[in-house]
Amino acid sequence: MNSFTFQNPTKIVFGSGTVSQLGKLTEAYGKSILLVYGSGSIKKTGLYDEVMAQLKSIDAKVVELSGIEPNPRLTSVNRGIELCRSEKVDLVLAVGGGSVLDAAKAIAAGALYDGDVWDFMMQKAVIRDALPIGTILTLSATGSEMNGNAVISNWETKQKRAFGSIHAYPRFSILDPTLTFSVPRDQTVNGVVDIMSHVFEQYFTLTPNAPLQERLCESILLTVIENAEIAMENPQNYEARANLMLCGTLALNGGLISVGTQNDWASHGIEHEISAIYDIPHGAGLSIVFPNWMKYVYQERIDRFTQYAERVWGIERGNKTDEELALAGIEATRAFFTRIGAPATLAYYNIGRDNLDTMAKEAVLFGPLGNFKKLNEADVRQILELSL
Amino acid sequence: MNSFTFQNPTKIVFGSGTVSQLGKLTEAYGKSILLVYGSGSIKKTGLYDEVMAQLKSIDAKVVELSGIEPNPRLTSVNRGIELCRSEKVDLVLAVGGGSVLDAAKAIAAGALYDGDVWDFMMQKAVIRDALPIGTILTLSATGSEMNGNAVISNWETKQKRAFGSIHAYPRFSILDPTLTFSVPRDQTVNGVVDIMSHVFEQYFTLTPNAPLQERLCESILLTVIENAEIAMENPQNYEARANLMLCGTLALNGGLISVGTQNDWASHGIEHEISAIYDIPHGAGLSIVFPNWMKYVYQERIDRFTQYAERVWGIERGNKTDEELALAGIEATRAFFTRIGAPATLAYYNIGRDNLDTMAKEAVLFGPLGNFKKLNEADVRQILELSL
């Protein structure tokens, strides 16, 4: 394994009813709070009222920013930054899924930056400080609740870009699995694919001698596969929802499960280009792209894929060649995604060849994508072709 | 799984040559440093000179406290506390194994406490603050480098007691696997047993529905078993030493691998009574006690032990009954400990029946031990009898 530095300061408060601790958790950071949320489903479920009651109990002054989009947009982030400045906000509180959390991080960092927040996404500036962030998670997927990453879409330029910073780790995150009981089936599915994809990006590495990290990755994959269909069939199964939530959090946890190894992230890069133009759900895009990425790259180091087939999918080697075993694991991935109802082709969203060139070009804007196999523009285009 | 709160703020800097980052890591905390270490082996290896050069590079004023014992003693802790006060220490820097780190934690907490530091160990007071702590680890074993726990021995009262506090987490820990190249074979063995025992304390639980946590535990056990003998046969094998070091750190990492489950810790409680009187190495004591604890309790929930046998030791069920399979796993544990040269009986240290009553009585001072099976004084005595 390689040398590494790891730190993850986020405090997580996990379990049913833990929103009741919000007031106490918030108090230390001041009274002026920017409450960031999405389309308003938190008003239907009663979570909004619960949050407001908690904030009232500590005499907080609450400013609201609602309507954060599923692929959160720069325009919303800029609205939040203005509110932070005009209302002298002490804490940015995100209530929602990964998109809301990501927007809150960009707002918190942008509020203390004397320039255009998009600079962080374009690698023109580094985050030096951010307002404190707290989160209440309502969807198991991105891991944003316990890392310093955010992905923001610039709708004007049709770009979707990410940043990561130690300053953007939430100070606290409330993880109550019961808040995911009402998540619709398709969003549960997208979350499952997203969690598994985060693990894939770390698991498929050329870095040798990282047996613990490999097993940590496999542990999450096995547990997600085991619990996904239980949660889909019975959305109120607490244990399945709790297992998925914990898996989501640990899958992208500042790199905990892959310390000292080189990650890939090509598939995420490709997916970002698709949803930057077509605004499709991130998890759905990953379901389309990832098995095709696997097929395109597995020969680079086939033993990673044979191990994946055996340990994650329980496929016995028998008389299979490495090639057959690796491909069986990739097919099992596609079959699982299909079984839970995740899409397999861009055609599912009526996406054709129109923008393949643009997407391939944008994907390699900062250089070749990925590390397991370095992908140039032509490689990306081929994977997109496979995904049609 | 149960509800839980988790936070682990320690920054770890892992890899060969990372001691070169000490100056930069230390600088933020002030110039007056208490350097805590053990018998002086760090002077032989050259580590002491390297540390002093780093501290000199930031113009630090260094006060030394050497001679920390393998089971660190309250008298040493009190000497350290006096130094912190008289020298207005800003940071306690521990260089050594778990004992040195534990002593540093007690010193850092005691320095800011207006009372007897032993109060923390006797549960008479709670730690409200501590001086910042930094560590450089030289032995893979206790996990003290990334948790808030410490175990201190009171030689006057023959008591060995633990505390845990969020304030006692190191601010940073430097983990350089090459620093463990010179660890003697018996200490490597004790470290291996200690790491595995930390996992056992968390893995053998009655808490249902924690499949991810179970797999995280199994991941560490498998990796330790795989790497222990490689490190023993070739002490300078970097990958084996690195894998053991990472396993040690994650095995007792503020409870990361067992969040939301009830831990046991009875075997540690029993071992502490043995080494409180006989001053034997902690890992050696655990090697003696743990398999006997397993045999004494496995029937409480036999499926935990059959899963252990199958997943960790790869024992096939075949025609075995649950009972046979569980016992095969326990026997495999004992056989592994014996194969790597860890002791199996108290007789190995010429310990007889003399103090069994005292040990059993002290072990339950604060109530029954453990959770997998609640052990009263008579139970502890029986496990000690089995260990003769």
TrEMBL record, chains A, B:
CDD domains: BDH. Pfam families: ADH_Fe_C (PF25137), Fe-ADH (PF00465). This is Iron-containing alcohol dehydrogenase. Keywords: Oxidoreductase. Residues 9-177 form the Alcohol dehydrogenase iron-type/glycerol dehydrogenase GldA domain. The keyword Oxidoreductase applies. The keyword Mitochondrion does not apply. Gene3D superfamilies: 3.40.50.1970, Dehydroquinate synthase-like - alpha domain. Residues 188-385 form the Fe-containing alcohol dehydrogenase-like C-terminal domain. PROSITE patterns: ADH_IRON_1, ADH_IRON_2. InterPro entries: ADH_Fe/GldA (IPR001670), ADH_Fe_C (IPR056798), ADH_Fe_CS (IPR018211), BDH-like (IPR044731).
